[in-house]
Design goal:
alpha+beta, OB fold (Dihydrolipoamide Acetyltransferase, E2P), 5-stranded mixed β-barrel, 18 helices, globular
Length: 480
């Protein structure tokens, strides 16, 4: 078996083990898988067929994955020492960029001894808290109100929540200098948008470029959900592609190609940290780095192994993202839809190869492929799937990269000249206003589709999708 296949199947079976342990099937899977592997090893011993040995090794990797998840979960629980449901005073370090809303701010606080662990603190707008601040806090540390919320917080390594906390800043700049600078750049970028654009347009541009949604109004958030365009503000390959294109294009004018490559890698990693390391942008960053690396060393880029490597690295860093991070699931499924389902649909419909006016055909196929892959997750987690989302996405997708690019330019130019950035703001306002009008219009025309889906139906749905992809891959279209 070639080395790239060994890696793919090894990582895949490891992820199966993590998945099974995540849903609580770890113990029985360990027993059954171990027995199956033992039988295969015995069969190999007597038959000397390498296939049995390979299959036994893959089954053992399921056990390794399940044990890895269990070890990580036990370690997380052992590192928590918090008095729940009682009024306490404690101190800690702010280790996240605070999320500032209209009337509150919330952030992750790493507790100092005698307590241990991390908690989510929700408090008023004042005093204004920054990453790296040391705080004295008074409040009640509560357990998450539901199992799903507890799993989400555990994925973030958070064990409890303090609402309406009283905080006092005792010291500042105690965190990572690099993180502090990156968060500062992010905040300055958002501030530059707010200086040259109206509130709604500035908030939307912050979402497109940096994934910031704290300034979104409730009405606009609901409009994006109803129109099926929420994914536009989930950082992904669009952002990474623009950064790679712009950075490499700028660096090679001054530096050698090798140095430009290294500087671009650092820029990508900095962008990931600056934007909060959401699952979608981490996945896109890993794959973007692999593309650059393949180009630099002169090797072929394989999507299949790049996707499995991105997922494997993210799960190694945090096993809980596989099941308890909806952003992780949506990001990977949407990408799989674009890479594998899109060509199958195009082949089935026998569509023309040209992209059409304003790339409407490409955008329609891309959106339809991604939406079909994530539809069950959207229905299960958000109880709706908009049937009109395809049209809304076709109308705005072609403009999104241009809008994002102008947003990054505005942020850079604002450091030199406010008036120049203001002129650029007038240009990008036209694009943003059109995109917002489309989102709001199709939110009103939304045709929600949210049937009750059980595990069996979801399994059958994806079984059909996989079968369709495989079948179309084998069909030969006769030439006219």
């Amino acid at each position: 078996m070639p080395s790239y296949d060994i890696f793919f199947f090894g990582a895949f079976f490891f992820l199966i083990g993590v998945f099974l342990a995540s849903i609580g099937a770890g113990f029985w899977i360990l027993i059954v898988t171990f027995l199956a592997a033992a039988i295969l090893l015995l069969w190999w011993f007597f038959r000397k067929n390498r296939r049995f040995l390979w299959l036994a090794g893959l089954l053992l990797l399921i056990i390794v994955g399940a044990l890895y998840y269990t070890w990580d979960d036990v370690r997380f629980r052992q590192n928590v020492d918090v008095p729940f449901d009682e009024q306490v005073s404690f101190s800690g370090l702010v280790v996240s960029n605070p999320l500032v809303k209209s009337s509150s701010q919330e952030f992750r606080l790493k507790l100092y001894p005698a307590l241990e662990g991390s908690i989510l603190v929700k408090t008023g707008l004042y005093p204004s808290v920054r990453y790296g601040d040391e705080l004295d806090v008074q409040g009640v540390i509560e357990r998450p109100f539901s199992m799903s919320y507890a799993r989400y917080l555990a994925k973030e390594r958070i064990s409890g929540v303090v609402s309406f906390a009283k905080v006092e800043i005792t010291d500042s700049d105690k965190g990572s200098v690099i993180k502090s600078r990156l968060f500062g750049i992010r905040n300055k970028m958002i501030a530059s948008f707010q200086r040259v654009l109206p509130r709604e347009e500035a908030a939307f541009l912050g979402g497109l470029t940096l994934g910031s949604r704290s300034e979104f109004s409730k009405k606009f958030t609901e409009a994006m959900s109803l129109s099926g365009t929420t994914h536009l503000v989930a950082l992904s390959g669009y952002n990474i592609t623009i950064i790679v294109w712009a950075a490499m294009g700028a660096f090679v004018w001054v530096f050698s190609r090798r140095l430009s490559f290294l500087l671009t890698l650092f820029l990508i990693m900095g962008f990931v940290v600056m934007t909060g390391a959401e699952a979608s942008v981490v996945r896109a960053a890993i794959m973007g780095i692999l593309v650059l690396l393949a180009y630099e060393v002169g090797r072929l880029y394989d999507f299949r192994n790049a996707i499995i490597l991105a997922g494997f690295l993210m799960v190694i860093q945090n096993p809980k993202v596989l099941v308890f991070d909806i952003g992780f699931q949506l990001s990977f499924l949407a990408l799989l839809g674009i890479i594998y389902l899109r060509p199958a649909i195009q082949k089935f419909l026998r569509t023309k190869k040209n992209s059409g006016f304003l790339s409407w055909r490409d955008n329609l196929l891309t959106t339809a492929s991604a939406q079909l892959m994530v539809a069950p997750l959207l229905i299960i987690n958000f109880n709706s799937f908009s049937l009109t989302s395809l049209i809304a996405n076709v109308l705005v997708l072609e403009l999104i990269p241009v809008t994002m690019g102008l947003g990054f330019i505005i942020a850079a130019v604002s450091l030199l000249s406010y008036y120049t950035s203001l002129v650029l703001g007038w240009v990008v306002w036209v694009l943003l206003r059109f995109e917002i009008l489309v989102i709001e219009f199709f939110a009103k025309l939304s045709i929600p589709f949210g049937p009750n889906l059980g595990v069996e139906l979801v399994f059958l749905y994806y079984f059909f999708i996989i079968g369709f992809i495989v079948y179309q891959g084998r069909v030969r279209i006769p030439r006219p």
